[in-house]
Amino acid sequence: MRLLMPQGTPLYETEQLVVHAIEELNTLNQEFTPEQPDQQALVQNVIVEYNNNQDAGEEGTHVATVRADLLTAETRNTSLLVLQDRWRDAVGEIPGALALAFKQPAVGPAGRAIEIRLYGNDLAMLSSVSFEIQQALAEYDGVQNLMDDLRPGKEEWLVRLLPGAMSLGVDGATIANQLRTAFFGQKADEFQRGDETIELDVRLRKEDKASWWQLQNYPITLTDGRQIPLSAVAELIPARGYARINRFDGQRSVTIIGDVDAAIANTGEIIAAVDKTVVAPLLDKYPSLSVSYEGEVKEGGSSSIGKKFLMGLVGVFIILSFQFRSYMEPVMVMLGIPLALIGALWGHVLLGYDFTIPSMMGFVSLAGIVVNDSILLVTYIKEHQKEGLDAHQAAVQAARERFRAVFITTATTVAGMLPLLLETSLQAQILQPLVVSLLFGIAASSFLVLFILPCLYVILEDRGLAAQHHLSESQVRA
What we know:
This protein has helices at about 10-30, 80-90, 125-140, 170-185, 205-210, 210-215, 265-285, 295-300, 305-325, 330-335, 335-350, 355-365, 370-385, 390-420, 425-460, 475; strands at about 1-5, 45-50, 65-70, 100, 115-120, 145-150, 150-160, 185-195, 195-200, 220, 225-230, 235-240, 245-250, 250-260, 290-295. It is of the alpha+beta class. A hairpin with a 2-residue loop joins strand 8 and strand 9.
């Protein structure tokens, strides 16, 4: 749990909120513990860190982080997501809190699910736009922990000169210097005591600094030595500035961050919808506004795996062209690659995995594997044609002969990688989307190739598009 309160919140208030959150966590721990093996406590340790909140990027008495160490994923019977949601509901909304986030450990280089960066020179405009975008995002199921980094700072008093103050010889610099001396002190004297030099500073007492009435009546010394109260020459206006102002490439910016429950919603679809329905009208409304998308959206969009995959396909095509002395047959042989994609996609659907970067890596690695069965099948068809069989008979005979070999090689590959797919450790779960692509892709491609590729070969032969160089002159004439 990560808590962010307004700047200036005293530590005791933050502590009270943290204690409340821990009490709710202990209640949930008592509820879930009987469900664990040997009735072990689900929550093993609770660590509280004040002055720390990684999301906020701030330090002070107004931020805190509560970490709960649970039983390992292999041991516990309670899902981390279930505990997280129950804890969020139990704590409820905290009055005055700027942000309250319940998160789980995340791995991978993709970055935050939602990270939208707004650019502009008008902070009020950026704050308004940020609020509108957050409202739109909050309407989607699965979107959680929304916040931005343009937050109010500590309470402050603006001192504004009254009309006629200049006629008394008082300007802004005079008041600022005298108030600075009163609050931060000024060295009045220095004396020696033994070997030590002691400096004597004069400043307001702590209780006088905290009193608005005392500040109103603070004596301002005029140029002629007379003193008048501060309220006679200036007015005090309560206000709040900003905790910090971020800049990127020399422009003021506000960054909106948030999380998305992948089991409920898709980050890309949400961002695309918000960009079309909310961000685009805002860009038309505020010409000085510009927007960029970071995090998962940027990392996913900037991945070069697609371009590298196309380069690999071109390489496979060139090699097969030399092998078969044809431009059509390599395309037919490479049919196993989209067939593998069908299997990989269905595997993710059946097992409930998202198609992520590891999934793409698994599919790309299939490109050089699944064509092997196709190459051998086409070679067998050509060998049977040399023996005098027509294209149809040669295709059927080659498919029969290669079925046993294809089945055994596919089965051994699946059996060898199945333990990794069934592993429950957190380390293995990172690789499981890749394994799903490999297993289901190989299985689907291997068996579909046996039925589809012979049909395509016969079609090419009937249309005269298949290479004839492997046949004798008499066979070609026939």
